[in-house]
Amino acid sequence: MDKIRLGRTNLMVTRLGFGGIPIQRDTEEEAIAVVKRCLEHGINYLDTANGYTNSEERIGKAIQGRPRKDIVLATKTQARDREGVEKHLKLSLKHMQVDYIDVYQFHNISDKKGMDAILAPGGPLDTARDAQKAGLIRHIGITSHNWDVAKQLVATDHFSTIMVPFNFVTREPADDLLPLARKHDVGFIAMKPLNGGALDNINIAFKFFLQFPDVITIPGIEKPHEIDEIIKVINGPAELTRAEREEMERIRSTMGNRFCRRCDYCQPCNAGIPISVVMSSFTFERRLPPESLLTGWFHDAITKAKDCIECGECETRCPYHLPIRDMIQEQLQWYREFCKKYSHLAKQS
Ligand code: SF4
Ligand code: SF4
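Above: inputs. Below: predicted complex with iron/sulfur cluster.
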């Protein structure tokens, strides 16, 4: 598989990487088989996160016995202070059974508060730099859902990679974030190439990326056949046919009006609702084990949506004019049905 230079990291990585969220849903044996299948296809970029429960451990087991230099390992910390970053990094190294991480990313820096926290003197960025000097980290990156914040972070020149949602429906990053990243020689990684599982036309979803030869994509892979299908597209004809272009436009116009980009421009919510999480709740069903959605952070987030006071202020801030209040109610209805469907799992836990 073709490799490209990942910006100023100078790492040579396959244009198709592996996203480690969905293997949390697999049995351990299945998860290891999925990662191994990706490696057999020649994929060398594996992305995971401290926050993805057992994903790091499973990747660690799958890469055992392979030369470390042949694999580019990327993980993330959601910590916003020195102690948290140190703790997460130690855990990541232990879980993946490695001596160093190639790309260590600050996870989801999508607002000013997060940006200020990681850049604070003696804070997460300085901690990562210390770890870099100690040889535990090769490069430092950022992931974000907010393109304005992402642009500011790229412009600081502190980071070697940037990862944002990017696909043929959410294509805004192509307008100015990607050119800016090129200018600063920051490696560009597209998360959610299938829009968080909301796009099922794999063919056009991946053909879309063939026009961006310096962008790598990291689809979340749960089953071996999924990566086989994507590889077929990558190795097939690069040109989009007229019919495929029309199909892309059709999906874009249908979804474009009713799809949350998770950019968080609608915040702050008067009731403290994590709107972007609630708005894309249904996509989590395809990515995470159902029992994990019945309790914990996801349950808390969507349950908070019941507090909506219908003030409508969020809608005035949404650049896509989404009917947020209606969509929140739709997601709550979906969650009620989801809980009913998986009530047997709730009883077990
Ligand atoms: S309408 Fe609901 S979700 Fe929007 S800002 Fe008001 S309380 Fe928050
Ligand atoms: S509702 Fe609109 S502003 Fe809020 S996260 Fe979604 S797309 Fe962005």
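The chain has two domains: 3-246, 275-348.
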